[in-house]
Amino acid sequence: MTPEPDRTDPTDLTGLADAVRARGGELRAGGTDTGARQRSGVSAGPFTDIHGAAGLHGTAALPDGGLRIGALTTLAELAADPQVRAGWPALAASAGTAATPQIRAAGTLGGNLLQRNRCWYFRNPHVSCLQKGGAGCPAREGDHHFGVVGGAGRCIIPHPSTLAMALLTYDARVEIHDEEPRSVADLYGDGDLLHRADHLLPPYRILTAVRLPAPLPGERAACHRATSRAHAEWPLVEATARLAFDGATVTHAAVAAGGVARVPLRLPEVEAALIGREGTPEALAAAAATVVARCRPLPQTGYKTTLFRDTVLEVLEQAAGATAAAQEH
């Protein structure tokens, strides 16, 4: 039976939220994830479209020098925006490397933050799992070579949001309609609670925007995705780094990783190992190696321990190299 078409006024956020409360189902923005789940039979709707909602597109400067980005801004728009590229390069770079050009043209900032995981058991309508209200995680005893390498949650599939990882390094905040702003990290919690969801936002709550703080003068950023093939592949591990230097000494470091846990991870141990030290190859390698202590691999994810360390080292080297090059010129 075809769901009744959504006729809610897309400019009325309260009406949109009330429609989801009354009808159930999900909000839909760019539709890249909801459409895929609908086609596979995992999500039946009904879907309440928010793409025409007022104030959810584009960027606006904030009085404190920060930037407000509407939740319906596409990944392609973020990657190409000169203001974002200049002031918040880690976000622009992450948006430009995510998914494929076609998905970046349709996928939105909010949709990327609130998407569902890519577990093939979850996305099979004939398989029961924790994410669909079942009693267990079939990936744990089945094929989980794309699974987590850290964390003790019942579900073992990593969160897929590349932009959440990048936003963690900026201490960004999200705006929620009819709620107080919260940190991006607060969308996900510690991961242990996420056995039936990939974020903590109720279905009827609308993420309206992301707020970035003012840029850090002289910062350099890098992101890297380790994949099993060159194009159109979800990362096995990915990382983002922001560094600032005073001469050769690291004065600021913000590092995060994805593909390794149920939530995107900020890596304070890496940051602490860098700040106040010279950014030598040895120091970068030692900082990257600190992530090994948090790894508790599953039988099929042992390879991710080394890959996690190496991916973090790659972004640190890229960011430090970009800083050195900028100082030389």
Structure explained in plain terms:
By secondary structure, the protein is an alpha+beta fold. The chain has a domain at 218-328: Enolase-like, domain 1 (2-Layer Sandwich). 32% of the residues lie in helices and 16% in strands. The protein is built from twelve helices and eleven strands. The strands form three sheets. A five-stranded antiparallel β-sheet has the order 3-4-7-5-6, with no helix packed on it. A hairpin with a 5-residue loop joins strand 3 and strand 4 (67-70). It is globular and about 60 Å long. Mean pLDDT is 89; it is low at 1-7 and 323-329.
What keywords describe this structure?
single chain, 329 residues, alpha+beta, Enolase-like, domain 1, five-stranded antiparallel sheet, four-stranded antiparallel sheet, 12 helices, disordered N terminus, disordered C terminus, Oxidoreductase, FAD-bd_PCMH, FAD-bd_PCMH_sub2
Describe the structure concisely for a colleague:
This protein is α+β, with helices and mostly antiparallel strands. The protein contains twelve helices and eleven strands.
Spatial order of the strands forming the largest sheet: 3-4-7-5-6
How far the N terminus sits from the C terminus, by CA atoms, comes to 64 Å
Major beta sheet, specifics? 5 strands, antiparallel
In percent, how helical is the residue content? Answer: 25-40%
Based on CA atoms alone, the radius of gyration comes out at 20 Å
CATH architecture level-2 label of the domain at 218-328: 2-Layer Sandwich
Query: Uncertain segments of ≥5 residues (pLDDT<50)?
Result: 1-7, 323-329
**Can you identify the CATH class of the domain at 218-328?**
Alpha Beta
**CATH H-level superfamily title of the domain at 218-328:** CO dehydrogenase flavoprotein, C-terminal domain
**CATH fold description of the domain at 218-328:** Enolase-like, domain 1
Strand segment tally = 11
How would you sum up the global shape?
globular
